[in-house]
Prior knowledge:
Elements: E1 3-4, H1 20-39, H2 42-60, E2 62-63, E3 66-67, H3 68-83, E4 88-90, E5 116-124, E6 129-136, E7 141-149, H4 158-178, E8 183-192, H5 196-205, H6 212-228, E9 230-241, H7 242-251, H8 255-275, E10 282-285, H9 288-299, H10 304-316, E11 333-336, E12 341-343, E13 346-354, E14 360-361, E15 377-387, H11 389-412, H12 419-436, E16 441-442, E17 445-453, H13 458-471, E18 475-478, H14 483-491
Antiparallel strand pairs: 1-14, 2-3, 4-11, 5-6, 6-7, 7-9, 7-10, 8-9, 8-15, 11-12, 12-13, 13-17, 13-18, 15-16, 15-17
Helix pairs in contact: 1-2, 4-8, 7-8, 11-12
Amino acid sequence: MTTYADYQRDRIGWFFGLSGGQLMFLALASLPAFWAISRGAWFSAFLFALVWVFLLAITVIPVRGRSATGWVFASTMYAVGGLFGWTSFRAKATQGRGDDPDDVDTPDLPGVLQGVQIHDGPPHGSQLQRVAIIEDHAMKTWAVTASIVHPGIGMKDTEERARYGEALAGLLDVAGRTEKVDEILFMVRTVPEDGAERDLWVNRHRRPNAPELSEVVNSDLAHGLTQASVRTEQFVTIVVPETRIARSAKESGGGFEGRCRELYLLMGEIEAQLRGPMGMTTVRWLTSPELALACRTGFAPGDRAGIVEALSLREKDPSVNADVPWAMAGPSGADATVRHYSHDAWNSVSATIKLPTRGVAMGALAPMLTPSEFGERRSFVVAYPIVSQSKADRQSGNAEWAADLAEGMNEKLGRKTRAKQRDEAHKARGLDAKLARGNSLTRPYGVCTVTVPKSMRITEFGRRLDASVRRAGFAPLRLDLAQDVGFAASTIPLGTSLTRSGDA
Length: 504
């Protein structure tokens, strides 16, 4: 079994686990107590000490992944958003504002996706396809998405799994050396099979004089196999910030055309790694209609059967419109609640996963992607934000310095260094050697989402998702107050990230 455990916390506290900011805040908060002691005001000193203990608790003790101050800030912002109506979305078509022909190709998406604009790139490849270029005006990024097919690692031996792991590391190193790619996202969506393609095939090949018994047997088999089967969709998205591509795009002709040329060069490098060492059998960069279809089925999984039937009818009658316009690629309505995300006739629950200390085995994510009941859809995204070389060197030096300082202070105070702290210090010191050998630094994270119709209890399926995460060896952490962002990042392949800010 191939296990990966070479990861550590993003920042190591150098004073009893406290970061520099936390230590400075607590030090300043203790000054009133010492001032009262110097004045001999013992009762006031006691009150200030109680206040300091309270500030210590809300600063240091985490509650479901956030400090108490973080929860207060997030809750306040959520309340303000609800007061101003920012947490609810209604499509323009539902408000009678979707009749303008010029708005058909303009995305009408909720939440963090509102700043997205889709462009048709120049003809690309042997088939001269116009790849969909995703521009996020809010995050100031450019992205492209590809549909991929991988044979899987379920039947692979240890050596092949290790080779795939090295290939993924090589892909991230290649992306880091370009000095343009900011993040690579791998998305998998697993949904129960709807049998749309099989029904079309059966209708085309059905014989009018077929035996009745054969018809009944095949119908029963189709019904049983459809309920027991699942269909998997896989996507990869590369994200490039405007700040990293602007100069090279100017050298390539400037404007939108120059940026497309730079993106196409990056697509070639990434595709070579995907098809080669990583063993992808299919890598197809999505066009604008294909990307709109992926977005629509992300918000409404039940619409896929009707779209497949329309595509089949268009083969016989070219006048049939089987494309999904971007104005209708999103939901007709969406509401972000505290514990789940509501969109059209569906509810979704999203959670991040916490990596275990003992390491992660390749293929451990499989239980999270297995639907527990017919009608349930599971989706998962693994994101690899790539840290620039200069920032990685600086963070490596700070982490190594913090580890040395923490060990030195423990020795002077006679405090024993725990095994977990020794492991983190060892990894911090080894990071510098890896960066010197040319490896890239990344902060991977994962988000998993379950989507069910509103006729089913979303709270029950949220608990099933948590159970699947724990069964896979991880710890689930619900994205409370940010369910809409978690859903967009893990289900809609438009390059949405949990780590990127608007100044990227």
